[in-house]
Amino acid sequence: MIPQPLVELHGWGRASGTMSHLTQIDSVADAISALRKSDHRGVVPRGLGRSYGDAAQNAGGTALDLTKMNRILSLDASSEPATVTVQAGVSLDHLMRSLLPFGLWVPVLPGTRQVTVGGAIAADVHGKNHHIEGSFGNHVRALDLLMADGEVRTITPDGDTKTLFWATIGGMGLTGAILEATMALQRTETAYFLVDTDRTADIDDLMERMSQGDENYTYSVAWFDAVTKGRHMGRAVLTRGNKAAVPDLPVKLKRDPLKFVAPSLGTLPEIFPNRMINKATAKAFSTAWYFKAPKHRAGELQNITQFFHPLDMVAEWNRVYGPNGFLQYQFVVPFEEDEAFRRCLEMIVNSGHLSCLNVLKRFGPSNPSPLSFPIPGWTLTVDLPIEQGLDKFCDALDTEVVGAGGRVYLAKDSRLSAATFRKMYPRLDEFLEVRREVDPTGIFNSDLARRLQLNTPATGGAA
Fold first, then answer.
1. Which residues sit opposite 438 in a β-bridge?
2. CATH of domain 192-415
3. pTM
């Protein structure tokens, strides 16, 4: 373990960067040593840096780079369900490539494979199948957690450790550092999907189709137009699909039905200016993206990258937003608050803040984690370039979301206030109680924790 000088760390949004000591961790002993040498600024675990905001940075303190702890430790393919045990630094990309030859599948995938298992657990990531499979934490069977006292403890979703386990799921690395995880897997015959695509005329058309049809699909997601106003506001491209079986494949693909197809278009260079996303480019992109999709197409065969991770084909795609970076704002409101959801969409479309990469999904039931983001309802995501007035606009969106009983996603956030956060997460005190018990001096710390005052007691007094 070699301590590093202060370096600037930021999230995928490339904004809100701060200076941290980035320490590479190669072993459990390294992690324990770094923890015991930490000063009053504490430590935060860090993976591949794909949280969008300030969750994995620690101004003036230490960030534990766990990406070298990337071994797959064991696989039990004969059990039902099959399980795999991995170190926390294993990426979902590596895990998927390793599992597919055995006909095994990661149950929940976010919008990129370039995240670590530890990060996926800490953020309790979700995918296009939350309405069927829930979030990532639902499929974790055990964790090895480095605690603030330097001990490594195995915790599970049931039994005496369940409270700590569920506080760690979605806990953003603030209950300890995840070192190993055992997860349940699914089985698959192929690495392909049968996908139905529909263009919808407006937001009402989109929501009606998703409400009445998503139950027939394991995976469902919509890209929607956040630029066009008027009667076509919220027009969208809805894609839904299920795993393909071997008989669904053409003869050529049947020869290797579990082939992992992951093409690369290269790395985006660091050449883009601020305001690359403007009225002209946003309108052109949104129009082209909408009309390039078929009005209706059923049963199209798509590979993993096409269906799940098209942005992974371009490394460093976030550079398109320029040096100022961008904010990804993701919120969820309950299904019964559909009018509030429409108001939020109208606010985005009419705000003057332009977004091209926009996603709409439906969430199913929550899990027991007090800080897990998904609740049953509509979730919307927009990528907004950092520019003047964005902070006030997001504050206004926060007000609508809070009023509807909704919340924003901590893995995407970099600007939420502590007071608003408390209103969004009514079970926060449960999390804080666990945090005070296992880490009373706040050794595990981050910029996010300080911003949201997660180092203070539930009463609001000093820790």
1. none
2. 3.30.70.2520
3. 0.95
